[in-house]
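step: validate -> pass
step: tokenize input -> pass
step: predict -> running
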Amino acid sequence: MKKLILYISMTMLFAACSGDSIGDTDTIIVSNDYISVSLSSIQFQGDETKQELNISANCSWSLSSDASWITIEPSSGSGNSMVTISASQNSSGSERTGTIILKTDKGKLEKKVRVEQGTPTGAIVPTINDNQYPE
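step: predict -> pass
step: emit ->
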């Protein structure tokens, strides 16, 4: 009788756990959220300028930048939206790059947009020529 009860218990245990195993072919759905952006990179001239970026999403999101010369308006929202990316004038004398990061509010999804800015049109970029003056 004990063997029968043990057999039935073990059978029920294996049957109950068989759908819970995680193998190489199993898929776990973490979230139904999605986000996408209309551009993977943005190029600006050196002068102060703006460009629009379309966001497609079914959730709340936020945008940030790793460069102080890039501003984003609005920097957060929900669902589909158009945002304005602005770059301040580049007075550094050389090209510069930055990254815009789009994240879901839960932080589970992330998209990056590379931002590049050249030097201002007609800017004179100083160069050093060590051979300019005779000794």
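step: describe -> The first helix runs from residue 2 to 17.
step: cleanup -> pass
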